[in-house]
Amino acid sequence: MSTSPEIHATIARLFVYPVKSCAGVEVQEALLIETGLEFDRAWMVVDTQGEFVSQRELPRMALIQPQLKHFEMVLRAPGMLALHIALDKVEQPTTVKVWNDTVKAYDMGDVAAQWFSDFLGQKLRLARFDPEQQRLSNKKWTGDVDAQNQFADGFPILVVSEASVTELNDKLVAAGHTPVTVERFRANIVLAGLDAQDEDRLDVMHISTPEGNVQLQGVKPCPRCPIPNIDPLTAVSSPIVGDMLQTYRRNAVVDGAVTFGTNAIILKGLEHGLRVGQTVQADYRFE
């Protein structure tokens, strides 16, 4: 970073997604660990073959609301009694598949399995990532860095700017549609103070914390699947968001896929706390 950084942004919001593809938990602070924010995508719902399921085929997953407490995660969903999952307990070892990765995990037992099966309407189980397992991001994008993940799609951190969401909403409103919220994009870090899409162009992001300096590196624009089309409050899907993004967010870096936000890895700052309001400094990256 130059002596006088080109970018001064602020962490506006932080989100953790304890159960892959279920609703996020907005937090004021989060601990940065090897795999991203603590508890992010630590659990995953799988079918009878151990393959992960997501909102892509089960949009009602958006209605499952986790809450993180000191010793447990509490899951709530419409018409269901709350499901309590202890943070420090697992049941039998199992093997599950997330995209092309087959990884070691722990099954969370029959009560959790029945809860998800009842709400989502098919036989499912809940698994927790085995912390002894190493699941690395694609080295094509991370270079020499071993960037670990739990059940995230491929990278430990997703960064989106408020300005990018505002730009999208301006286009939606101009076309006669209702604006959408940042929750659709399932980011971990939402930045204020950037221009639209500048998250794609940042070099190393430096964040000063009480524990020391955190360094995050954006490595890959995030290709978007149909999940942003799903209203997180109703689980109703409409192609309007995806169709609008198609008009201006095709990205040659990922073979013309539609991207929104940037995937980031951790260069420095493990066991440091990220907090809403912290300053993020960076220079622009030119390639």
Overview of this protein structure:
This protein is mainly beta. The chain has a single domain, classed as M1 Pyruvate Kinase, Domain 3. Helices cover 12% and strands 36% of the residues. The strands form four sheets. It has a seven-stranded mixed β-barrel with strand order 1-13-12-17-15-14-19. Strands 5-11-10-9 form a four-stranded antiparallel sheet. It is globular and about 55 Å long.
Provide the descriptors you would attach to this structure in a database record.
single chain; 287 residues; mainly beta; M1 Pyruvate Kinase, Domain 3; seven-stranded mixed β-barrel; four-stranded antiparallel beta sheet
Find the structural class using helix and strand composition: mainly beta
The whole-angstrom Rg is 19 Å
CATH topology: M1 Pyruvate Kinase, Domain 3
The portion of residues assigned to helices is 10-25%
**At the first level of CATH, what is the class?**
Mainly Beta
Number of domains: 1
- As a percent range, the share of strand residues is 35-45%
Fourth CATH level, the homologous superfamily: PK beta-barrel domain-like
Low-confidence stretches: none
Terminus-to-terminus distance:
15 Å
Using the 3D structure, state the CATH architecture. Beta Barrel
**Tally of separate helices:** 4
What is the succession of H and E elements? Answer: EEEEEEEEEEHEHEHEEEHEEEE
User: How are the strands ordered across the major sheet?
Assistant: 1-13-12-17-15-14-19
Largest sheet: 7 strands, mixed, barrel
Counting DSSP E segments of at least 2 residues, the number of strands comes to 19
Coarse shape: globular
Mean pLDDT: 96
